[in-house]
Amino acid sequence: MLSHAPGDTLGHRLDPRTKLAAQAAIAAVALARSTPAWLLALTLVCLVALRGCGLSVRAVYAEYRGVLPFLLVAPLVGALRFGPPWIEPAGVRDPLLAVYRTVLLLALAAAYVRTTSPRESRAAIARLVPGRAGRFLGLGVALVFRFLPLLRADLRRLREGSWVRLGDERRVDRRVVHLAVGALERAFRRADALALALRARCLSWNPTPPALSFARRDYAVLCLTGALIAAAVAW
User: How high does pLDDT run on average in the chain?
Assistant: First the structure.
């Protein structure tokens, strides 16, 4: 699965605060300007970002292929009508643009996860949000980044074990129940182990953060981000 991987790409060398600011700006532009022309421009921006982070479109698709079918339900539902003509093709446009916008933001999130360690994310959020709230939020983000891959791995092993025992020959509802119950059970076990580990290691609310500093490349990215916002406001 997609997770943080050390590297020397431009995305790895950027300050995490720069990456968070760029993501927030692109998300704001995507929400404010959801026309096909603007989404095409944001697609080019996302492709450049993926390139700078050493990620391919294929890798991002492999990560989110389980989510895409659920996203595509929205345009289909948008075309349905409770009465003649029952299906209105014009109703597909806005939900489809919203789905495409969501896919772009997911691609940016994948680039951020690949190039930013949980420790850096925690430090960046703690600096952006002052006080205890920032430390608490940063801790939560770091725990999610560390905890979610373990849950995904548990679910994958559970599914593979079910296939070995011919679980794919069961009815769909029984397969779903089996995987859901097993996933919840393992999630609770992981949560108990995490709570015990936090108590045993005396969780620190104010750990020594990694050194964060802006470089020329960060200012360049922030300037480009500002130009994108200015263009969205002007046009």
Answer: 84
pTM for this one?
0.77
Q: Indicate if 109 and 219 belong to the same structural domain.
A: yes
Q: Are residues 191 and 221 in the same domain?
A: no
Residue pair 115/12 in contact (Cβ under 8 Å)? The answer is: yes
Q: Are residue 38 and residue 73 in the same domain, yes or no?
A: yes
Q: Are residues 196 and 100 in the same domain?
A: no
Neighbours of 86 (CB within 10 A): 9
Cis ω before 85 (30° cut-off from 0): yes
Decide if 171 contacts 154 (C-beta within 8 A): no
Of residues 122, 114, 132, 6, the one with CA closest to residue 51: 114
Query: 41: closest CA among 189, 49, 219?
Result: 49
Distance CA 137, CA 148 (A): 16
Q: 204 falls in which pLDDT band (50, 70, 90)? A: low
Residue 27 confidence (pLDDT) above 60: yes
Are 23 and 109 in contact by the 8 Å Cβ rule? The answer is yes
Q: Which domain holds residue 96?
A: 1-116+213-235
Q: How many whole angstroms separate alpha carbon 78 and alpha carbon 95? A: 6
DSSP-based three-state secondary structure for 80? strand
The predicted pLDDT at position 221 comes to 95
In the numeric block, which tokens belong to residue 162?
């079910």
